[in-house]
């Protein structure tokens, strides 16, 4: 079996951690049990470009149980858990091409490795896999039934491709499922980002000024968790509606040029580029800690920081100290990459249970419906979203009410007034 991982001797620890995560993924487990009987992916190849974590491992195992030939590579050079990658190869016979800390050349060689397996279905997180197929492997476009995209950044890229008429196969935006973005983005990113900052710095958040750039679902989660730990939270936004929401939620709202003067901690979660720039570094206080929880390492202008610094050193693992000309020190976490996956373990399994249940069911939906789908970006079908919610509630022992026939008639009637 062809693969490229760091060290197979790490596999035992990875296997134990995969099993530990599986205990908190009852929805995916129930889907796996059905897949193992029905084999919806029999004879099909699935290539995935995702964060190689314990939760992702359980998704890959589920797809393989469904009859697929599965190949996995990393969607971020720093997010791979090497023990998990090794365990998938050694114990589950799933080829993995991912090594934590790999350089850009290796990263794309791994993406090419899973593309060259000529997949029928692709699963992406950030759209690097899908965009590489379109740029370098156009002859495969007619063979791919469809794909799924996991994150906001990737959905933005793919919608742009669809608008320009260059998208070569249908995509389901798993990121936009309610049971994904309302829970994974808010609770998962919220908790794991704080976890990553704490593991990297061991600094106290209580009593600090904590700046969150962007108030989408991820930003909401980070802001809520930082406030819960005792920080005064400042939100920066470009969208007036989101800014108003942040204000009404009780957070300080101001431009980054003002927030930069106050912040002790900074987290970017916008999906855009150069959110924290040279003009902001110029006014930051000595000891400011900056990090990113958006998908790509472009939200913090690292080139500007490099040009302004007179020295740079790694003072702790995942913490780079930049000393500026006036002696102020600014600390960049995880090279500006996803701090929650680089210096921590990413989202808790119980949250990823819903996200990856959406992935698994969306893959099945593509197999059943790809002939009738256009080359555009689709939302996750409502029936899948609701099925995931029902399964999650059932696994939590939660029951809810059902509409009565009278209520159904009332909601569907226009004749009944006051």
Automatic annotation (TrEMBL):
GO molecular function: adenosylhomocysteinase activity
Keyword DNA repair recorded: no
GO biological process: L-homocysteine biosynthetic process; one-carbon metabolic process; S-adenosylmethionine cycle
Cofactor(s) needed: NAD(+)
Binding sites annotated in the UniProt record for substrate: 53, 125, 150, 180, 184
SMART domains: AdoHcyase, AdoHcyase_NAD
EC top class named in words: hydrolase
EC number: 3.13.2.1
Domain S-adenosyl-L-homocysteine hydrolase NAD binding: 185-346
Family classification: Belongs to the adenosylhomocysteinase family.
Protein name in UniProt: Adenosylhomocysteinase
Species this chain originates from: Thermocrinis ruber
